[in-house]
Specification:
Layout (H helix, E strand, L loop, with lengths): L2 E6 L9 H12 L6 E6 L3 H8 L4 E8 L8 E4 L17 H10 L10 E7 L12 H18 L7
Parallel strand pairs: 1-2, 1-3, 3-5
Antiparallel strand pairs: 4-5
Amino acid sequence: MRTLVLGLGNPILRDDGVGIRVAERLRPLLADRPDVIVEEDYWGGLRLMEHMIGYDRAIVIDATAPGDEPGRIRLLAPDSIPTQRSASAHDVNLPTALELGRMAGAHLPPAEEIVLVGIEAADVLNFGEVFTPEVEAAVPRATEAVLALLDGKREGT
């Protein structure tokens, strides 16, 4: 099963970059797994869907909007959170992008093989490359959550 592990975020917007950091931690840990590709990106919507073309499974790591306990990790389905990273009317959210891709005949993971590892952020509005303490503490737990998913374990968070 060809799997994409994709960290999303903006590395200069404090906690928003947590998906990228987790992906960076995972890359050496998964270096001996040719069936797993680890990448980072800054975009959602159509570009995120394009990243998933050719894969059988996708694990996307991203910060979730403030409002819950910072550092909390949740495993979410693609339609659980918005992944549209632009305010452009020309972009779409992930569920719509996946539907468009499938209508166009793209080989995409089925919805049940796409998991979003959401890490609740405390600050995604201020510039900075340092995470809040709660999000920094969540990085190892999010890394372990992705490794568990790759081993077929869907553990609680």
